[in-house]
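Sat 14:20. Reprocessing the chain from the morning session after the first attempt stalled halfway. Input below, unchanged.
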Amino acid sequence: MCSDLWAGNCTLTDCTHGRGWSSGYANREMLTPDGKTGGNLDGVEYTGQCFVCNNSSAGDSSCDKNDKVAIIVNNSIVKIYRCDAGDLFDSWGEYGLDKITTICGDSPIRQADVSGAVKGYRLGNSQSTSSGLNISTLLTSSQKANNLCVYYECDGNKIPNSDGSECVEKQCQGSEQRQVTCGGASIALNAGTCIQQCTANMWSAEIIYTCKSDDYVCVPRADGIGCDRCELSEEAQLRNASAQQVCENSGGTWNGENDATCVCDENKHLKQNADSSACECDDADYEYSASAKQCVLSNAAVKREACKNMAGAQWNEDSKTCLCDDETMEPDFDANKCVKTAAAALCEEIGEDKASFDAKSRKCVCKDPDKEVSEQAKDCVETKDARARREAEDAAIQKKNEQNSAKARIEEIRTKMASITDGLGVSVWKNKDGNFNTSRLASDSIAGVVLGTAGGLITSNVVKKNQIKGGFEKINCSIGGQTVAGFGDDFSVGISLQ
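Finished this time. Tokens:
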């Protein structure tokens, strides 16, 4: 046991304890910064710093008899320990906070049990009536605390009164001003006239002002001192109304009552423009939404961020578009991935022998220049121009074939007619003198005779009837009842093609 004549500074020193570790200090002599000592350290491994009670091994760091140490948590004293407490030397004992009753010299409330006051403890001296208030110290870490005092302060929005005997409600804060009634009328804030200044959380005496600018018209008080109220002039009202509309259309809030300015809310990504007359977006990635009255992320910005997080895709800043590395694919922002384009998928369905994907136009193109892609048919079909050309060519061929066929028929008829005509001069029906051969009549009285005239058939019965009466001279050809050729006349039959 150390002598009680040892004198030290009572500060933290290095300590170790437990499982064969030894710093030369007993458990009862050690006090950790978090308040462990004596039995609380039994069986505990500890290495760190501690306060040592009355042991010369600690040198100048040793604490003397009756030295007090405050254990601090979150800037508040939670416990106090005293060295050599009780009858056992060289040990720490808890010292009750209720034993500290001296009020700090700078305590805002200078007496105990004041309603609305909060009690705390600080390091410092008591009040002094001879030399003013002594400044106390708020402890933030565990340390020697022989001179502790009680510190009372008001809570919430309350402040001490002038003599520190009670807590009263705050009237104001900082250097704020408030509008007051002048001559019975309420004045628009900052228009001028009557305001009060906040001093030490209390309102000062009333101060009278005139209207602040030519934009306001002063309505004098009844006593002629200052203004009863300040009203905006008609010109200022019209000007403010126009400026207000511009401001509000840009998403701002018009502060016409105070200083006729446009207030822009940074939470809406708005800032004042160059002349402060309206708001504008504070970032190039944002664009103004008239319906929302604020700036929102532009579509390009939204897509750019989504593109950066999409596998196999790159953002093109020049075109402001998201491009997939595979040219046959396009970004699907809902699925957050690159997917096959409809054109590329259609090309695959049509077949690479018929169509191919054009990366430049990003379309499916038929390899046959006379054909085009049909999404409905899912095939390459003839183009309108190609079909028109083909139909014109088919019509020309058909017309040519018809003409050739007609010519062949005419030629065939002409040949038959020529053969008939050549036989009309001398035949079995005429003798060498050109007279009717009556001897032929009996042999062919029953047989039908084809005369070859335009494909017409005249039976021997008809021939006989004419021969009996007058011979072939009574036979003629007519059209619509009009005789156009008689027996023995030469004529040709033809067909006109239009």
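The chain has six helices and 35 strands.
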